[in-house]
Write a structure and sequence with these properties.
Length: 98
């Protein structure tokens, strides 16, 4: 797989079935000066994606691999599901509000 560089516009219909998929085990980046707005985004189990620009998603985001937001955002009305590739461990903690 590879990097996604958008200096124009990358968009799909809101009700479309198009899905932007990142797979593979090399780090991939989403970047550019343009606008990205897709129906769905999927980061597969071994993928490691650096979000170097904000991305609009209308339907669904599913992350099984790693998605590094940096200072960017996923925007839009999409549902968000994250499934870890590493088995979670139990723990306890304290939350303090000030």
């Amino acid at each position: 797989m590879g990097n996604l560089l958008v200096n124009g516009t990358l968009s799909s219909p809101v009700a479309g079935t198009n899905e932007l998929i990142f797979a593979g085990n090399a780090t991939q980046t989403i970047s550019g000066s343009g606008t990205i707005n897709v129906a769905s985004l999927f980061v597969s189990g071994k993928a490691n994606v650096d979000l170097n620009k904000s991305v609009g998603v209308d339907q669904a985001v599913r992350v099984i691999g790693k998605l590094n937001f940096n200072s960017n955002q996923l925007t839009g009305n999409a549902s968000f599901t994250a499934d870890g590739i590493i088995t979670p461990i139990a723990g306890t903690g304290t939350t303090a509000l000030s």
